[in-house]
């Protein structure tokens, strides 16, 4: 819960302008002593009323106040970013009852906001009393407003101005108070003065009445906490709360004891001046009056200054926590809480208008006690939280304080008590109104706009200062003159006191005017100087480079933190040594060093390369040089590896026969790695693919490019292109290189393509050969077996039965043997012939023959051995002188005619036609046989190929192959037309007049 509170606060703080942490520890401490000095305001009255018994009021008051200080310190540690201190811690402790928390904080605020008015009235009264004997009429109203306003004027100059001013006055003031207490106690001890306690008992109601008043000063020693969020070192600021705590008994018990012992006369009454004077005269003698006057004037002005510093912070933090109108969270660029300050001034003015110090004190005291009760309630409610020190005891304090508030408050005045309880409520109602009313200054934007346009002008700084000095000197002289004149006439103690008051007030005013005019500028200059210093040190601490300041003799004067690492030596040991102890290559003194060089040094056994820059000497009496060292080892290594990668790439590119083109997503070639002389980069670079490649290839290339970019995968395509009149084959690989760019690796694959084609032909031939072999084996196994069987059977029959056979029968078998051998011989001849034809050894010897006669003879020859078929010869014109190889022609025609007969098993007519033209002889053999399936007609001329429909008709599949070879040798053509079951027609066209 607490933790989440802290987070919320931090977030809201981030949204609003933050108070700058610009108060030094000493300045925050100054604010923490106002409460102690305030002892002089309450002690005399309590002393006058209770005499020696006053110590019973102070004893518990001091004890609780010490604990309160230590408790607030603990809370401050927990909420170090919370401004305003105690009341804002109370509001947080009471976060389960936010309205109560807000009420308590505002009550505290009011008790402080009333302070300037109270002290302005007291101070005015003091002057009035002192002026009366001189016969000078005191301008009361002006003085009251003036004293109230002084502190506000300074506060508007900025927190620092106020803090410095405060410090200037608080140091002598607290010194006076402590001296008074310690010297007084010493004097009492030395002179053994005894304190007389009267026999009257102290009634509880009386005690409560005076404890009520005592709390307003003794509890208020925790004001340091209000400035923790402004402190440059919050922890140190908080530490002061312990010092403040232990000063409480010194001042409140010690001081009261001094009063009891040294000013016991009840006739003195409650007058502060007389009480302090009576007591201190014993040990200060004649200076007592002067010192006490000084002390009272200081303490009045100090309380005003603390009030104007403390009160706006309470409003500011409440506004940040969204408990009050957001306008109170506005911070000026100088760190002044202007709207909160204006509101505080307004409350002070109201109190001033009220005018009755006694009433204001009771009302403000009520509000103060209520706020401390709220704190004790909050502590008890969260008694188990780590930031709470005496949670359970807080309930006891709360109960006692409640009784004191009711009884003591009523004894003073029930109306004032009621007033003290209701005024914080009235302020909260006012806050609601501020939120709702649309009056521009009630809203942050109005203020922020003002700050935007407000330019700070430093040009008039000196002029301002001179004018102010003149005014101060002149007015001081004039006032001194006037006072001097009066004092001469009536020189007595009172006028000396008046002089003191006037001098203090004047100096306060002088400082106020100075603050208002020049201090902000000095503060701004100081701020600018600090910013510049911060910037420089931030830069020195942030840059990775080592920056050294080197004296003219080469000795290192300053070095930033990276130097520790680069030299592997603590900074303290680097400073004071000569730079060339670390960098031996920097020979001689800085003036001889090169402006820029590279040095290699060994750090932790590793060589590191440093880039060393030496500045020009600084223009001063003892010139200094700034040396910047940058560790460039990694960069060097990267450069080296880049160089080696480049070399590898270049070697690879040179070794590869491929062309490399970088092409962007639009298809424009951005660079080329050319090969040889034939391709020049200028022919390609900055050209679109469409301009380089033929349209169809360019189209394909662009598609591949887009695909490669889309899929991030290598795309490969092949294309052909004319180069120097020759058709080349190319293979292009498209690879994505970087975003929106590809590399096309193009390779000339013409030779590979050629080799592939050759390979395919060879393979085809291989295949053919193997088919040929298998067909040959099939043929021989069929065609040789039959005649061999015939030969074997006839020979065996002759062997066995020859002796009893007739000659005729023997002859018959011998003829069968001869016929089979002839058939086999024919077969072998055919094989031989086709073998010769395959290797191109078939001879071609054309000579003139009478074609008509040749054909007729052939028909006759064939017709002799065949009676089942009739060959019908038809020749329209005779063809007498044809230059043809007769042997080959015989192979052609006899094979065609034999086939026509053989594949017409039903017998019938075979038409044989010869048509001669002057150039060609056309032979046509037509039968009406089994025909050839169309799908097999293309293979008819392959060796050993036989159609699938041959059935039992024997054959070798060589006849048509021989025909084809023979026709080819003549340069002629052969064609076949056939239909299964209808018949077949072979047409051979041979050119005539072959060269002999
Ligand atoms: P074969 O010795 O088998 O006759 P060929 O080379 O002379 O060998 O003929 C090859 C094949 O062509 C034959 O097996 C046959 O299938 C077919 N053929 C050739 N001529 C004819 C034809 N006139 N009628 C039908 N088929 C034929």
Describe this entry's structure for a reader.
With 996 residues, the protein is α+β, with helices and mostly antiparallel strands. 61% of the residues lie in helices and 12% in strands. The protein has 34 helices and 17 strands. Strands 2-1-5-4-3 form a five-stranded antiparallel β-sheet. The chain has a five-stranded antiparallel β-sheet with strand order 7-6-10-9-8, sandwiched between helices. A five-stranded mixed β-sheet has the order 12-14-15-17-16, with helices on one face. Helix 12 crosses helix 13. The radius of gyration is 63 Å and the shape is rod-shaped. The N terminus is likely disordered. The site of adenosine-5'-diphosphate has 21 residues, from helix 33 and helix 34.
Kindly report the average pLDDT value. 85
The CA-CA distance between the termini, in Å, is 124 Å
Computed CA radius of gyration, to the nearest angstrom: 63 Å
What is the beta-strand fraction?
5-15%
Helix/strand-derived category reads alpha+beta
Helix content: 55-70%
Small molecules in complex: adenosine-5'-diphosphate
Overall body shape: rod-shaped
Strand order of the largest sheet: 2-1-5-4-3
Number of E-type strands: 17
Largest beta-sheet characterization: 5 strands, antiparallel
Low-confidence stretches: 1-16
Query: How many alpha or pi helices?
Result: 34
Give me some keywords for this one.
single chain; 996 residues; alpha+beta; five-stranded antiparallel β-sheet
Concise structural overview:
The protein is α+β, with helices and mostly antiparallel strands and 996 residues long. The strands form 4 sheets. A 5-stranded antiparallel beta sheet has the order 2-1-5-4-3. It has a 5-stranded antiparallel beta sheet with strand order 7-6-10-9-8, sandwiched between helices. Strands 12-14-15-17-16 form a 5-stranded mixed beta sheet, with helices on one face. Helix 5 (54-78) crosses helix 11 (204-218) and helix 16 (357-381) packs antiparallel against helix 17 (391-412).
């Amino acid at each position: 819960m607490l933790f989440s509170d802290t987070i919320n606060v931090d977030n809201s703080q981030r949204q609003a302008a933050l108070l700058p942490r610009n108060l030094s520890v000493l300045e925050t401490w100054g604010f923490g002593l106002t409460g102690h000095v305030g002892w002089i305001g309450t002690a005399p009255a309590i002393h006058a009323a209770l005499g020696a018994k006053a110590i019973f009021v102070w004893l518990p008051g001091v004890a609780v106040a010490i604990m309160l200080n230590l408790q607030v310190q603990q809370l401050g540690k927990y909420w170090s970013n919370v401004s305003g201190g105690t009341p804002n811690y109370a509001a947080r402790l009471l976060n389960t009852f936010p309205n109560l928390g807000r009420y308590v904080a505002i009550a505290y605020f009011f008790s402080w906001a009333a302070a300037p008015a109270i002290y302005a009235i007291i101070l005015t009264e003091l002057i009035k009393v002192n002026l009366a004997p001189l016969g000078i009429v005191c301008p009361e109203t002006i003085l009251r407003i003036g004293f109230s306003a002084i502190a506000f004027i300074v506060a508007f100059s900025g927190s620092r101005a106020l803090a410095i001013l405060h410090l200037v006055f608080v140091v002598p003031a607290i010194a006076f108070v402590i001296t008074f207490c310690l010297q007084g106690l010493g004097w009492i001890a030395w002179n053994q003065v005894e304190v007389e306690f009267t026999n009257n008992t102290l009634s509880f109601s009386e005690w409560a009445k005076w404890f009520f008043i005592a709390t307003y000063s003794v509890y208020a020693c925790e004001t340091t906490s209000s400035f923790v969020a402004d402190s440059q070192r919050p922890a140190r600021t908080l530490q002061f709360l312990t010092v403040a705590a232990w000063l409480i008994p010194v001042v409140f018990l010690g001081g009261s004891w001094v009063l009891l012992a040294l000013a016991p006369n009840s006739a003195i009454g409650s007058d502060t001046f007389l009480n302090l004077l009576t007591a201190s005269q014993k040990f200060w003698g004649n200076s007592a009056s002067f010192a006490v006057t000084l002390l009272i004037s200081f303490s009045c002005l100090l309380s005003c200054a603390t009030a104007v510093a403390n009160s706006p912070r309470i409003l500011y933090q409440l506004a940040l926590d969204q408990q009050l109108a957001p306008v109170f969270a506005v911070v000026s660029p100088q760190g002044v809480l202007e709207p909160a300050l204006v509101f505080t001034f307004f409350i002070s003015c109201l109190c001033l208008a009220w005018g009755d110090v006694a009433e204001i004190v009771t009302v403000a005291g009520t509000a103060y006690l209520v706020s401390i009760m709220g704190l004790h309630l909050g502590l008890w409610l969260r008694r188990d939280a780590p930031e709470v020190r005496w949670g359970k005891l807080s309930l006891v304090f709360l109960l006692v304080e409640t009784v004191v508030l009711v009884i003591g408050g009523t004894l003073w005045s029930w109306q004032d008590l009621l007033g003290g309880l209701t005024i914080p409520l009235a302020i909260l109602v006012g806050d609601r109104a501020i939120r709702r009313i649309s009056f521009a200054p009630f809203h942050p934007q109005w203020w922020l706009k003002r700050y935007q346009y407000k330019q700070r002008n430093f040009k008039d700084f000196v002029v301002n200062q001179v004018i102010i000095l003149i005014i101060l000197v002149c007015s001081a002289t004039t006032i001194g003159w006037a006072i001097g004149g009066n004092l001469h006439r009536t020189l007595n103690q009172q006028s000396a006191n008046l002089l003191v008051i006037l001098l203090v007030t004047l100096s306060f005013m002088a400082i106020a005017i100075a603050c208002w005019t020049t201090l902000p500028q000095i503060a701004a200059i100081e701020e600018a100087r600090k910013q510049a210093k911060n910037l420089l040190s931030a830069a020195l601490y942030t840059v990775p480079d080592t920056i050294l300041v080197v004296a003219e003799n080469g000795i290192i004067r300053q070095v930033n933190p990276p130097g520790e690492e680069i030299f592997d030596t603590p900074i303290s040991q680097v400073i004071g040594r000569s730079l060339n102890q670390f960098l031996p290559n920097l020979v001689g003194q800085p003036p001889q060093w090169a402006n820029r060089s590279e040095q290699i040094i060994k750090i932790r056994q590793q060589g590191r390369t440093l880039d060393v820059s030496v500045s020009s000497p600084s223009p001063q009496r003892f010139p200094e040089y700034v040396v910047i060292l940058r560790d460039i080892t990694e960069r060097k290594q990267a450069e080296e590896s880049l160089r080696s990668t480049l070399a590898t790439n270049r070697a690879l590119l040179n070794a590869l026969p491929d062309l490399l083109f970088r092409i962007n997503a639009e298809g424009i070639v951005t660079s080329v790695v050319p090969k040889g002389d034939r391709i020049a980069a200028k022919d390609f670079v900055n050209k679109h693919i469409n301009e380089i490649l033929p349209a169809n290839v360019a189209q394909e290339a662009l598609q591949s490019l887009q695909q490669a970019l889309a899929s991030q995968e290598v795309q490969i395509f092949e294309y052909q292109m004319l180069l120097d009149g020759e058709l080349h084959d190319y293979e292009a690989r498209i690879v994505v290189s970087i975003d929106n760019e590809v590399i096309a690796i193009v390779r000339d694959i013409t030779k590979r393509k050629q080799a592939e084609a050759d390979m395919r032909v060879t393979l085809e031939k291989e295949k053919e050969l193997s088919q040929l072999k298998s067909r040959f084996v099939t043929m021989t196994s069929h065609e040789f077996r039959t005649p061999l069987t015939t030969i074997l059977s006839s020979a065996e029959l002759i062997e066995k039965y020859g002796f009893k056979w007739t000659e005729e029968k023997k002859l018959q078998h011998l003829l069968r043997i001869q016929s089979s051998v002839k058939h086999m011989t024919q077969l072998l001849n055919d094989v031989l012939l086709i073998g010769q034809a395959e290797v191109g050894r078939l001879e071609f010897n054309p000579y003139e023959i009478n074609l008509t006669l040749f054909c007729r003879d052939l028909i006759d020859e064939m017709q002799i051995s065949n009676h089942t078929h009739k060959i019908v010869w038809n020749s329209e014109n005779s063809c007498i002188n044809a230059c043809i190889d007769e042997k080959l022609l015989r192979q052609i025609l006899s094979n065609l005619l034999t086939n026509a007969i053989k594949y017409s098993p039903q017998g019938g007519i075979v038409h044989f036609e010869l048509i001669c033209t002057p150039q060609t002889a056309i032979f046509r053999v037509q039968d009406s046989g089994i025909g050839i399936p169309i799908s097999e007609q293309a293979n008819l001329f392959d060796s050993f190929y036989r159609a699938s429909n041959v059935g039992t008709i024997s054959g070798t599949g060589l006849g048509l192959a021989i025909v084809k070879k023979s026709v080819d040798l003549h340069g002629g053509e052969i064609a076949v037309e056939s239909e299964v079951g209808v018949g077949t027609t072979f047409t051979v066209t041979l050119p005539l007049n072959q060269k002999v």
